[in-house]
Amino acid sequence: MGRPTIIAGNWKMYKTLEEAVIFVETLTASLVDSQADVILAAPSVHLAFLAKAVEGTKIQIAAQNMHEAEEGAFTGEISGGMLKDIGISTVILGHSERRQIFLENDALVNKKLKAALAVDLKPILCIGESFEERESGRMEEVLRSQLEGSLEGLTSDNLRQMVLAYEPVWAIGTGKTATAAMAQEAHVFCRSVIGKILGQDFAQKIPILYGGSVKPENVKSLMDESDIDGVLVGGASLDVISFNQIVHFDVLSEV
Ligand code: PGA
Fold first, then answer.
1. Any atom of ligand 1 within 6 Å of the Cβ of 235
2. Atom 7 of ligand 1, residue of closest alpha carbon
3. pTM over 0.70
């Protein structure tokens, strides 16, 4: 199928610059033999420094969010162009914490996606259902509407660089992971919806990551599923030892 393997960490609002630099140095030393693309989404104040620190390594630094406008009077916000300017290549968009706490909806995520693509940033688009939505049998409806809303007006050509992350909200930061079979089923469903919106060829090529309480203990079984191309890791990405084990899931003996 030829899809890349992507292991991404999302540090959220954690780590001082010093802690971030030590993490990156430690991780770099153990990545020589890794086949995966490794991405770390860091707090925005550390991005410029880390982008330089990882030059020539296998690590890419990502932003966790951006504003949809090119520039303007938006106190506290950061544009895609600014991220690009400091050497950032990737941005997470529509993370469930942005949707739930900061009330981002699909229409806004769609604008952000267009703004990111306009400056050639690789978007990691996050979608996922809540516990109530899954329990009431609405998982597919929710994933379909998030995909349709977020991707509105975009073509497979625009979205060449996009990565999708399926992150069931009930599994984020809760210690409850979707079983590998549940994640695989959701990934197959997302791929089929993407196929309808953007064509089968594109749907087969897009990497889909799973996120939600990924740990060294469960990464191998998730990665064994044919439609899971990588993982987006929150809590377990804060500790370099556990993140490194996740990156090396293919050589990890059962932990
Ligand atoms: P978690 O977070 O691994 O701590 O569940 C995942 C995420 O928020 O992307």
1. yes
2. 234
3. yes
